[in-house]
Amino acid sequence: LQTENGVLLPSLQSALPFLDLHGTPRLEFHQSVFDELREKLLERVSAIALEGKVEERYKKLEDLLEKSFSLVKMPSIQPVVMCVMKHLPKVPEKKLKLVMADKDLYKACAVEVKRQIWQDNQALFGDEVSPLLKQYILEKENILFSNDISVLHNFFSPSPKARRQGEVVQKLTQMIGKNVKLYDMVLQFLRTLFLRTRNVHYCTLRAELLMSLHDLEISEICTVDPCHKFTWCLDACIREKFVDNKRARELQGFLDGVKKGQEQVLGDLSMILCDPFAINTLALSTIRHLQDLVGQDTLPRESPDLLLLLRMLSLGQGAWDMIDSQVFKEPKMEAELITRFLPMLMSFVVDDHTFNVDQKLPSEEKGPIPYPSTIPEAFTKFLQENKIACEIGLYYILHITKQRNKNAFLRLLPALVETFSDLAFSDIFLHLLTGNLTLLGDEFALEEFCTSLFDGFFLPACSRKENVHRHVLRLLLHLHHKVAPAKLEPLQKALEPTKQSGEAVKELYNQLTEKMELRKPSPAEVTEAPSMELPLPTVPTPASR
């Protein structure tokens, strides 16, 4: 048996007894030879896949697969069979079905083979993608509710390129490869989930996935996605957090270039523009433009750049309705937004300038001029009834908070109590607001400020919206030591979790309670402090001895 099945090398027969002298079993020797041969065979298979004419090389591999497939369940031979399948652009249907039917084989096969299985089996592909999409949404929510509150490092801090290196985007990119059919399936999943949940993070993933394929220069997909160049241009704006004039013209060209009969592309473009990172860039650019217009004595209707920003904001904000109704046309812009609301915001900027100038003027008998405390009723109405006005209004409030403009913040805060579909209580806005409020940390020592912020805005919403409860606790974890003592205990009581509260709220509340306990001086310390100071003067110094 050994002679018939052993390695037939004349020179080997005399060398084998040496192994016996060293106590090395023949099994170990044959196993190492087998492993070596398998490695050589794997290398040869990879080489065949690259050499000669296309038909010939694939014919060789198909023959090899036919001969070896019956051994696919043998662990020692399986890698070879899998390697052959991996290099075949089209594995025979029969073999794919056998792999699909066996869980272990399916798990062991390369992603190249799985792609061939997935493209004709949407349900199976959905099962693979679904956990990744859940993980992605969870990661985004964890960032929004992170305990690290900072103006410098917030949700929008990472650059687009850094975000695309995330695990989920990379895995999806690898699963799709160059397969247009799989890419379309993922986009369909994202559209369906966006419709079902209204969760805008799916729009972010839509853009990130396309740009990740762009980074890898996968032209097979990028050239067939009509949004590619638009997304690429917008991605550069998001990186700069500003839409400059040159890119604004490019973006406008793409929007104006949507031909009759191709309106469906607007659905995809609106989803790209609905990405919070895009909305953030457009809104920041809008606020910056409004400030420039104040300096130029120009009205909003006279600025084409501003009108384009509003057009894109409008398209992004209308994404859900457009995909839901399947009516692909740009939403009509309300004239009043441009003729009334934006001039009103500009008047707030002017109020600030006027007040600052007044403060610098030498005071006369009439005394200091108070900061305007009322807000036009129309402003509140716009925030309640117009989605774009609401978005821009919220970004203006974030802007004045970042400038540490307490007066303007307290003036406009009451308008946030009731906004269009509760946008002022959305996680993204509260995440940014809590970060910016850390710049006004010293104001928390004033009872009046705390009353306006907590009693007037946060607390009434806490009972009906758990996310608001979480954001307030995050803020207090960071700033509790600066809050007016008279307000701190009532605040702690008001924020106590109820039976219905989720685990996250309870956990945050416990952390806050612990932190506050640590800050309370213990009774022992209070009594000991004076007694330690009393004997100090009586201690003799070396000189007096």
From TrEMBL:
Q: Which Pfam families match?
A: COBRA1 (PF06209)
GO CC annotations, alphabetized: NELF complex
Q: Source organism's superkingdom?
A: Eukaryota
Instruction: Cite the InterPro entries for this sequence.
Output: COBRA1
Record region (Disordered): 519-545
In its UniProt record, which GO terms are filed under biological process?
negative regulation of transcription elongation by RNA polymerase II
Q: Which protein is depicted?
A: NELFB factor
Organism the protein comes from: Alectura lathami (Australian brush turkey)
> By which gene is this protein encoded?
Nelfb
